[in-house]
Amino acid sequence: MTKANPTAAEAKAQARNLREQLATQGTKIGHAKALELVAHQHGFRDWNTFHAQIGNRAPENWTPGGRVRGTYLSQPFEATVLTIEATRPGWFRLTLDLDHAVDVVTFESFSNFRKRISLAVGPEGLSHERTSDGVPHLMIELE
């Protein structure tokens, strides 16, 4: 049985890990070289070919009925994926049904709870939208 190819985010993480491991052994390589080596490990001739194959694929659990966890407006959550739609290469609009509603307001005198959210998420599991202090609104843990 063959293992499925990783997502683009997983492949990039593999390249980072490879660079770190080689650096501890005294061999320094650039990120581009690490990406090429990861592509070769998965049987592809180069990173561009590999990325074309995997770049538009969402992580396995990002399917309707799949389970995800992370933070929404800095509050931890676990949720069920209701819908997913590819918006551009590596980016997906997810609609999530949170197990427990989160308060999206930081004022003590006012609350606004949300149980269902819909945001575009990139290959690293982060939304493009940011809070005023630069933190992504949605951060999904990649498994």
Short description:
The chain has 143 residues and is of the alpha+beta class.
Q: What is the share of helical residues? A: 25-40%
- Strand runs, count: 5
What gap, in angstroms, lies between the N and C termini?
21 Å
Number of domains: 2
> What proportion strand?
25-35%
Unreliable residue stretches: none
Strand order of the largest sheet: 4-3-2-1-5
Topology pattern, helix = H, strand = E: HHHEEEEE
Strand count, sense and barrel status of the largest sheet are:
5 strands, antiparallel
State the helix count: 3
Question: What is the CA-atom radius of gyration, in angstroms?
Answer: 18 Å
Shape descriptor reads elongated
Question: Average pLDDT value?
Answer: 88
Secondary structure category:
alpha+beta
Key attributes of the depicted protein:
143 residues, alpha+beta, 2 domains, five-stranded antiparallel β-sheet, 5 strands, 25% helix
What does this structure look like?
By secondary structure, the chain is of the alpha+beta class. The protein has 2 domains: 47 residues, no CATH class; 74 residues, no CATH class. Helices cover 25% and strands 31% of the residues. It contains 3 helices and 5 strands, in the order αααβββββ. It has a 5-stranded antiparallel β-sheet, with no helix packed on it. Helix 1 packs across helix 2 and helix 2 packs across helix 3. The model has no long low-confidence stretch (mean pLDDT 88).
